[in-house]
Structures are given as structure tokens and as C-alpha cells.
Amino acid sequence: MPRYLHALHFPVTDPEFDLLDELYFVTPFRTLLQKTGLPASDLENQLRNLLEHGLIRSYWPDPDTELAYETTSFGAIARDASYLASKEGLLQHNTR
After folding, report:
1. What integer pLDDT is reported at residue 8 of this predicted model?
2. Structural domains of the chain in order of their starting residue, each with its CATH number
3. Strands 66-67, 56-59: pairing kind
4. Is pTM beyond 0.90 here?
5. Which residue in 52, 55, 79, 89 has a CA-CA distance of 20 to 30 Å to 5?
6. What is the DSSP track for 19-72?
7. Rounded-to-integer distance, Cα 37 and Cα 10, Å
């Protein structure tokens, strides 16, 4: 199944939906912590889940450099990266 179809069939939780709401622009992890009020580990897990489903993109070491998601290295940079909803994520957010 193409990635974008998989993303549209992935049901997001309410907290993930709220997180997508914050990602219309490239946003650093620290800012997401402040805006969501989530514990850092919970936010990291939600970001990981959204990345795995292609609903968001990550950027590191600066907001202009997209970083391909890799499960093994995500934990090392998760809190230093910035995030943005993908086209699929925006569609998911706007059609709920």
C-alpha cells in the first residue's frame, strides 16, 4: 500500500491530533513541550509514532534540513530536532 494511503487509514489519537495541530510550521521539540504540556518521554513517543506513519517530518540540525526517520537513531536526536506535519498529516488532521 502506498505510504500516503497507509497514513490516511492510520487513526490518530486525540493527543496526536492535538500535536498535528501544532505542526503547520516547523516547530522545535522544546516549543512542542511547552505548548502541549506533555512529559518529554510521552511527546517523544507520539512524535515517533507519527513519524513511523509518515504523518510528520523531522528536521535536524537546523529547520531547513529534513532528516530521514530511522528507528535506531531517533532517540538520540528527538529532543534536538524540529518537526512539521507532512502533506499526509495535514490531510489526516483536516479530514477528521
Report:
1. 52
2. 3-94 (1.10.10.10)
3. antiparallel
4. no
5. 79
6. HHHT-SS-EEHHHHHHHH---HHHHHHHHHHHHHTTSEEEE-SSTT-EE---TT
7. 24
